[in-house]
TrEMBL record:
SUPFAM superfamilies: L,D-transpeptidase catalytic domain-like, PGBD-like. Pathway: Cell wall biogenesis; peptidoglycan biosynthesis. Residues 184-295 form the L,D-TPase catalytic domain. Pfam families: PG_binding_1, YkuD. Residues 68-77 have a biased composition (Basic and acidic residues). The lineage of its organism: Bacteria, Bacillati, Actinomycetota, Actinomycetes, Micromonosporales. Keywords: Cell shape, Cell wall biogenesis/degradation, Peptidoglycan synthesis, Signal, Transferase. Residues 33-113 are annotated as: Disordered. This is Putative peptidoglycan binding domain-containing protein. It comes from Micromonospora nigra. GO terms for cellular component: extracellular region. It comes from the Bacteria. Transmembrane segments: none annotated.
Amino acid sequence: MGHLRFGTRLAALAVATLVGAGACTFDPQADGAGGGGPVSVGAVEQPTGASGTPGPDQRKRRTPTAKPKPERSRARAEPTPAAPTRSPAKPTREPTKPTASPAPAGCPQGERQRAVETYLSRLGGFGPVTVDGRQSAADCAAIKRFQRRYDIRPAHGRAGPLTYDVAKRLATTDTAVCGRRTGTTFCVDLTRQTTWVMRDGRVIVKPTVTRTGMAGYRTPAGTFTINYRNVKEWSDPYEVWLPYWQHFTRGMGFHETTTYLHDKSIGSHGCVNLLRADAVRYWELGRNGSRVVLVGSRSG
């Protein structure tokens, strides 16, 4: 019997480790708060944040190796015959050939350059962008700021598929689908995997990225209410910490992601995963009684 319990616990721990992304806790109204209990912000351990799991744009780094030193030849160099003395001629300058302006050093141009420029120009807030499909120093700087803001790795300024996907989802989010309601409302577009916050019908936190429930653990659409908050909640089913936890239905809630948010091969167990900066902001704005509106559905 003891071997059976030990094996079962190992299996549960393995599931939590593999899936990880936003493992949720029990519904406090049905099965209790899931342990841990509320603690003060000052007493919280430093959340780990997203892990180093490589994303779609990430490339493996090559370990630099030292170049072998050339061996010195033991043969004596033959003397070079002296050239006949001539009057020094005036040096002639070769004509400078016009060259195409190269991309900024260390900032390669991506295959989605023009589309990313278009979406970043529409979003605003990341610096000047020229929509011409050609990488420039200004474009590179803006794309890097965008990648750092949404934790796209590596943040090298390249307009690759992941950068394009995130920019498109954010730029095409229609905040009006959340409705014009009084008070603070947390909105989630399950189709685009984006989330934002409104107050009295006005957007106070612009759309940002999220990851919701995977197949078999889908996050439901509907209108709910935050009814339990804990700055650091412990998940009994999956044995992981859930930083900045705000529960709204059936053991599901907002919390900081425990894995790389842009890894689409995994999902949550119904929770709404947030980047650390967004989880902190949502925690500051949230209250018990705050409204949560989820629309659409996640594909795949």
